[in-house]
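I would like you to sit down with the record closing this message with an eye to the fold:
=====
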Amino acid sequence: MGTGAETAGEAPFFVVGNDRSGTTMLRLVLDRSDEAAVPPESMFLLDLAPVRRRGGLDDPEAAARFVAEVWNHPKVRLWELPGAPPPVPPGLSHAEAYRFAVESPFRAYARVAGKQRFGDKTPAYLHAVDELLTVWPDARVVVLVRDARDVALSVTAMPFGPNNAYAAAQWWARGIRRGLEAESRHPEHVLTVRYEDLVADPAVQVERICEHLNLGYNSEMLAIERSDPAKIVQDQAAWFTQVSAGITTAGVGRWRTEMRAADRRVIAAIAGPELRELGYDSDDDAEPVGRARALGYTAQDAAQRAANAVRLRLLQERGRELRYVLRRKLGRLRA
């Protein structure tokens, strides 16, 4: 029932990274394996982590209520799982009951797909690798990284995340550092893969990833253009139009022709060390950002984030995740 130790070949796996780094593409690849199913992003492992730290799930009634809360999370509801939450087995410790509860919707999703194992693709877990390995000590993690400039071009067009080159470079570099720190702390569990290498030679890179995940590889996994469009959450489909074209290098190096030179110089100044550490060309002259200009970038980003929050959380999502989003923001402010 997933409450005890698991062998490496049964353990869950997680795909993480900065948004717009190819994590959805890799999710679809791994979901096409014969062994594992990977649902849309979960997010509830961050939202409900305080329950793990607080304790108390050795009480059967508390554990039953918590399983129901997990299944009622707005991200889980999007998975459209059949049936009711499973009953909690008797006699579980708090840690065992927590693990049973949070992995139960993943296991239900895998059963619907006829698979034995489950994975997860949630970019934000890039900042929570230790939390994942606390719950699943045998888990494997893939950190997908992509050139900061291509990420900035993509993410600033989305209704979430940073909204200018300055904010994007800070956010990207912070995520890169967190991923590299996680790999340094847990080298047997965490593998860093460059998006550019993955799309340039998908067979070699996916086989390498599968070896890390103890997952069987087959070439059909690469045919993501054949994946069911319903694998993408309906109101997010416009964010992932390129996956229908399959694995392609079309998104590599767009910054060379589409990004303003001034933005390239700002990114080089802020994220140059991380770009170089990952082997990316960063020949642009760095343009230091003075205090007044930094304040302007920050103010513009904050104003755009507020407008985007209304557009995304209230209009597009109709408030379904608003309670959890506010909790996350409050948690970051307290941190």
Q: What stands out?
A: The chain has 15 helices and five strands. The longest strand covers residues 140-145.
